[in-house]
Each structure stands twice: as structure tokens, then as C-alpha cells.
Amino acid sequence: MTSPPKQDRSRATRQRLLETTIHCLATDGWEVSTVAFIAARSGISRGAVQHHFPTREALILAALEHMFSSRAALLDNLPEPTGTGPERVHAVVTGLVDAIGGELFQAALQVLTAAAADPDLRAVVVPLERHFARGVHTRAVRLLGVDDTDPAVRALIQATLDLARGLALANILTDDTRRRTHVIQAWSTQLAAALS
Amino acid sequence: MTSPPKQDRSRATRQRLLETTIHCLATDGWEVSTVAFIAARSGISRGAVQHHFPTREALILAALEHMFSSRAALLDNLPEPTGTGPERVHAVVTGLVDAIGGELFQAALQVLTAAAADPDLRAVVVPLERHFARGVHTRAVRLLGVDDTDPAVRALIQATLDLARGLALANILTDDTRRRTHVIQAWSTQLAAALS
């Protein structure tokens, strides 16, 4: 067995670094997640980390992009909803809430919160976040099978995504699963009625 | 004119400290908002700050309580909604979104995000946050003039408060006022239909 080509090893290292960065941000927070800390956690030398990402900002931004692509992939991999009406809407809303929340949200929240108090970081985070938000909106429209050229439909989809972010935030300190189930049910019923 | 009694001066200093802490958290973020930084910003000596709050945690928690009471007061001071139906619901949802968002949210977000990665801080923040969430729910029920012993009504009010938190989060990096107006309108229409 030959060892994998250098380029593949480099790609695998990069991938591992980004995933460790996301995990460190979500678990240990913004302040603790320095290059040295992430390097130690990923078992990669600081020099090798700096070879891939010359600055902490470059590493964090690449991790943010990776997070956003992972979330988009989660949505793309949702099973094609069957049927129409309330069951479909409920399944799609549940899928959206799951894809927007969880560890990816926890990590992204650390970066967004730091960016709220750091104009330089904000300037690079805002376009990424916008691009991601548009991607999620497009996927929500496709999954719901609706036409969002109607401004009322568009606003309802936006509201659903804001609700999903609010639910993700409500889950960061305690397990909010039980309450969230009721909230998703209640909103899905209204959304299905409005879209039908 | 005599100078104010010592107790009043002490109360005024405490109040100024808490308000400066909220402003520093919202503007400068968690990491920067140390006791030394907040003391300098408020023009109060570090010794005097430590007389009121022996630790950074004590100061931050008092600021969090102060934030939560300020938000509750915002809701209590909303004009009694007139009429019934969609206009009332729209006015109440707008009031809730305003009271939950803004600088108070920005400051609270810094604390909640730090608490997400710090079990000791989380242990003291969670009961405070719960107490505040219950207070907002009760005020929303009163303002909407509904009966939340109906589980479906209860879940819709919860959904509205989650939406408000999601909208507050969407506003931390850029001015989201325009989009938010459409979202509140769309949501209020559905909520009014569901509650009537």
C-alpha cells in the first residue's frame, strides 16, 4: 500500500483543521480558540497550521465558510419531501431548524458575536453570512415547493428562517428540544395554512 | 443646596456602573469588557467598582439582571393596545420585537455566548434567563389579551418570542430594519388569524 499523494494529505489536514476549529469554537468559545489552542487540539503543529492559514482570522473565516457549506449540504441532503400540505411543511420546517441549529450554529454564534464588537471582523463576516442566508432561503423555497416572487410568501419564509435562528439561540445554554417540538408544530400549522 | 445623602450617591454610582457595563458589552464585546475597562469608561475608580462588585462575574450578573428588568419595564410601559384583531396583534408583536432587540440584546448576547462555552457562568446565567423568559411570556399574554392555558396558543406565543430573538440576532451585524418590518407584518397576520 502506497501512502496517499501529498496533495490529498494536505487536503485532509486542512479539512481536519477546519472541523477542529468548528468544534473548538462551539465547545470552548471565541476567546479560547486561538491558533495555538486549535493546533494542539487537532494534533497538528503550529507551523503546519500557519502553512495552511497564515493568521487566526484566515483560519476562522475558512472555518465559517466550511460551516456554511456544511449547513447547505445538510439542506441539500434532506430527503425530497413527499406529499403536500401540513405534513410536508412540518417536515421541511423541522429540517430547516435542524440544519440551522446544532454545533454549527454554536460555532457560528461565537464568530458572529465577536464580529458584533469588531468592525474588521464584521466587514469580512457580513458578506459570507449574506451569501449563506440567500442559499438557505433558496433551499427553503425549493423544499416547500412554493413561489417566493409573491412578497407575502417571501416574508413568511424569511420569518420561518428567523424563527429557526431564534430556536437555535434558545438551545445554546440548555436542551430546549421538548419546547422546540411544540413551537415547530404550532408554526408549521400556521405556515401550511398560509401557503395553501 | 445640600449634596445628596451617601446612600443615594452610592445607588446612583451602582446604576451608572451597570449602564456602562451594558454599553461596554454591547459595543466592545465580552473579551474587552473587563472590570478595569468598565471602570475607566464609567469614570469610577477600580476600587469603587470593587466596593460594589467584588468580582467581574458579580458585575456582569448584576448588569444582566439590570438588562432583564429594563426589558420587562419596556414591555410594562408599552401603551395598552387598543382594539382587537390584526392591528392589536401587529402592535404587540412590534413592541415585543423592539423590547427584545436593540442594545440590551447585543449586551445579553455577549454574556450568553460566553456562557455557552463556560459551565460556571452558564450555571448562574440559566436561572436568570429562565426567569426573564417567563416574565416576557406573561407580558405577551397580557398584551395580546389571550388565554394561554390552550397549549396551541401557548406554543404560538412562544414561537413569536423565538422569532423576536431570531430577528434580534439578524440585526447585530447590519441594520435589518427594512426586512424586519416585512417579517413582522407577515407573522402578525398569521398570528392574528390563528388567535381569532
From TrEMBL, chains A, B:
Q: What SUPFAM superfamilies has UniProt attached to this entry?
A: Homeodomain-like
Instruction: Please provide the record's keywords in A-Z order.
Output: DNA-binding
GO terms (molecular function) for this protein are: DNA-binding transcription factor activity; transcription cis-regulatory region binding
Positions of the HTH tetR-type domain: 11-71
UniProt keyword annotation of Metal-binding present: no
Q: Which residues bind DNA?
A: 34-53
Q: Which Pfam families match?
A: TetR_N
Q: Extract the Gene3D superfamilies matched here.
A: Tetracycline Repressor, domain 2
**Record PANTHER family:** HTH-TYPE TRANSCRIPTIONAL REGULATOR PKSA, HTH-TYPE TRANSCRIPTIONAL REGULATOR RUTR
Protein name according to UniProt: TetR family transcriptional regulator
